[in-house]
Design brief:
alpha/beta; six-stranded mixed beta sheet; two-stranded antiparallel ribbon; 4 helices; 28% strand; globular
């Protein structure tokens, strides 16, 4: 495990306090390597995807999904959270991270950042916009995790812990594909 993944795993351990939670099946989507950490929590099964993929079946739901801060590079990040909800068991947990806008005054907004290269374009939400994306996808936010380790690009990050709930998501994104 790299030093960055070690510090992220240690930070998650201190902030999320998942030690009292029955971890069972764990899905990790995105950047960091959490297999060792979630294994120490007693994960019975660990599945890792470098990016969201509709090829993953929702037949056996996951108890915990860790979604790193790499998802803002998705063209439709809200579709990713709706897809993740289909993979999480009712009452299961989503530990999600995202790079966020630095200014608190822009918390309710999301900025589309185009670097001139369509492959590098991304969405950058404010903290409130990030929370709303998670909530309208069928999760209730339990708490924010404070002061995540800095990202490599200097952009502020935010992490939250949310519970999957039994309600129809506010948006029907089932027809929106995950890919570009």
């Amino acid at each position: 495990m790299s030093a960055t993944a070690d510090s992220l795993a240690a930070w998650v351990a201190a902030q999320a306090d998942l030690s009292d939670y029955a971890v069972g099946r764990v899905l990790e989507v995105g950047g960091s390597d959490g297999e060792e950490y979630f294994g120490r929590l007693g994960a019975a099964e660990f599945v890792s995807l470098p990016q969201p993929s509709e090829s993953l079946s929702a037949n056996t739901p996951f108890d915990l999904v860790h979604c790193s801060a790499d998802l803002e590079t998705e063209l439709h990040p809200l579709s990713v959270y709706a897809w993740l909800r289909t993979l999480v068991a009712p009452g299961g947990m989503l530990l999600a991270g995202s790079s966020v806008l630095a200014e608190a005054a822009h918390s309710q907004y999301a900025e589309y950042v185009s670097a001139g290269d369509p492959a590098a374009a991304r969405w950058l939400p404010g903290r409130l916009a990030f929370r709303w994306m998670v909530e309208v996808s069928g999760f209730d936010v339990r708490n924010w995790l404070d002061d995540p380790p800095p990202s490599g690009d200097g952009q502020p990050r935010a992490y939250l812990l949310a519970t999957a709930v039994e309600r129809v998501p506010a948006l029907d994104l089932s027809r929106q594909p995950l890919g570009r």
